[in-house]
Amino acid sequence: MKNGLFGRLFGSSGKESSRDIAKKRLQFALIYDKLEISDELLECLQQDIVDVISRYFEIDKDSLKLDIERQDDLSALVLNTPILSAKKNYD
């Protein structure tokens, strides 16, 4: 879903070449460096987000993916996880 939605928003085609994939990986690494985000900070942030979302939804924690995407001068924190169901009783 993420690839389809962002592909449509940012104009990427369905199949990417290895060059395009390598370029995106490099851009992702540069974003981390520019924002000075450590792996530890990202892991803590991910756990906090999972804790909050888990109060309201059953999610597939094994498929969860947290990314930082950059478009021009803006950065976006993107969490992608399947929602299995909504909880009826909140913690």
- DSSP strand count: 4
Shape, principal axes of CA atoms: globular
Radius of gyration: 15 Å
Give the strand order of the largest sheet, numbering strands 1, 2, ... along the chain.
1-4
Give an overview of the whole structure:
- There is one protein chain.
- This protein has 91 residues and is of the alpha+beta class.
- The protein has one domain.
- It has helices at residues 2-10, 18-35, 39-56, and strands at 57-59, 65-71, 74-80, 83-86.
- The strands form 2 sheets. A two-stranded antiparallel sheet has the order 1-4.
- A hairpin with a 2-residue loop joins strand 2 (65-71) and strand 3 (74-80).
- The longest helix has 18 residues, at 18-35.
- It is globular, with a radius of gyration of 15 Å.
- The two termini are 29 Å apart.
